[in-house]
Structures are given as C-alpha cells and as structure tokens.
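task queued by scheduler; priority normal; single chain, no ligands, no partner chains; default sampling; output format set to structure tokens
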Amino acid sequence: MKVLVTGSAGFLGRHTARYFADQGWEVTGFDQVDHDEGKTIVGDLTALDSISSAVAGNDVVIHIGAIGDVYLAGEQPALAASVNVVGTANVVEAALAHGARVVYASTWEVYGHPKFEPINEDHPTSPDHPYNITKLGGESMLLAACRLRNLSGLALRLGTAFGTGLRPNSVFRIFIDRARRAEPITVQGDGSQGRQFTHAHDIAGAFEMAARSELTAMALNIVGPETVTIRDLAEHIVSRFPTELRFGPPRPGDVPPARVSADRARQLLGWQAQTSFHKGLDELIDDVLRED
C-alpha cells in the first residue's frame, strides 16, 4: 500500500510518515521544503497540478499540510484560507482524479465554545478564529466531496498534539527552553485552562487505522483522555529544572477549555490513546536536553 503524507516536513507529518513506514507502507512525503527523511516531493498545496502529480499512484493521502500555527493564521487569515481551504480542495480534486482515499487532519477547536460536555461529534461547530475557521473549511470540503462525489475519506478532529520534535514556538518548547536556561516560566492567566494533549505517535496510529478503514464521510474526535492544565504542564517542567513559575495577564484569543470525547473513535476505529501525558512530556524534555 502506498501513502502520501502532506506536510511531511512538519512535526506531526514526520511522526506520521515514520509510523506508516514502520507499519510496512510505501511512504512519500509532500511539502514545500525537502527534508532528510524518506522520499519527498517538493510542491505547493495551492497549485492543483503540483498536488495532483504527487497523489498519482498512491492509495491514501494523509492530509496534514496546513497553516498550523495559530498565531500566523491570526496574522495572515488570507494565507490560512488559501492553504487550509483551497489547498484541501486541491487535495480532494487530486484524490478524486486518481482514486485515492483521504484522511484529513482537522482539530477539536472547530467546536468553539462548548454547549455541552463532553463534546462528541454531534456537537455543533462554531469556530471563531482564522485557524479553526479555515480548518473547518478544509474539513467541509472533504466531507462534501465524500457525500456528493463518492470520495472515500475521513476527517480526524485532533487533540493538541505533542511529542519529540515540537517546533520551538510551541508552549511546550517555550517553557522547556526557558527552564533549561534557568529563566522563569510565565503562565498567562491562572493556568487553569486545560487541554487534552494527545501524543503524536497515538495520532499517527489513528491516521493509519483511518487509512485502512472503510468508514467514510464522517469526522471523528482523536484526543487523549487526560485533561491537563497549563499550570500542570508548567509545574512538571519546573520540577525538572532550577527555575520558578510566575503568572501573567490572560492572553486574548485563547481557545476555551473543553472536555472532548473520543468514544466514537474507539467504537468505530478501535483507537484509543496509549501514551500518558507525563511519560510523553518526560520524553520530550529528555529529547530537548540531548540537543545541548
């Protein structure tokens, strides 16, 4: 079986490409930049000819490529719309042309402010930021093609991903990098905002299960079971380094905390998270320390 992983130079794309290769798939990456892991096609999601030639010959496309930086999406919403919506529409067209299945990396943030908890897939979507608005736009493009044009595809609404290789501007790396320099860690607000952080290896496993599944035209939540507050995250890092924890004013635009259910993914895909938060965090810290 052959799989194309878009966004393969990024944090989650790298984890996913490695996971598929370990499971015996023939993996090709697709990104705007070349990288040193496996076969890669350099191209642009916003150019239909570029993505179409890359999709040709593949059985499945794992579509992770996106403007995934929330702050960049907020500063450049037109760019986010071009890549996340138009780029996904191009992936859909290419998959239809070449008979490939598509698994799309969506986000739990498409739900917006929770109307009930735990949030399941029947919860209404009400995104309010250029990042999650455009991610829902891409998801909608995929699911519309599944319903109207018989595309085989699933959208996975992912929890906040973490693991080794996180980009330097992630909250994990910001806290760890400051702590290892013995600089104080500052939490915005009281730190009570929680996230169901989900390990990249577990997410990659969900992609592989979805790739093999015959389920189509639906979205599934893929989130870890633990709700971890930003304060919990910061305190665990502080326990590993000679630093201190401080608190600052809340940051505007933060996504509100919510409990999200992955029961449907467990029932339909057989997926559930395997990596505990603290184990994954310690692995990340140890990996960063090896860079020194």
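post-processing summary
- The mean pLDDT is 95.
- Residues 77-98 form the longest helix (22 residues).
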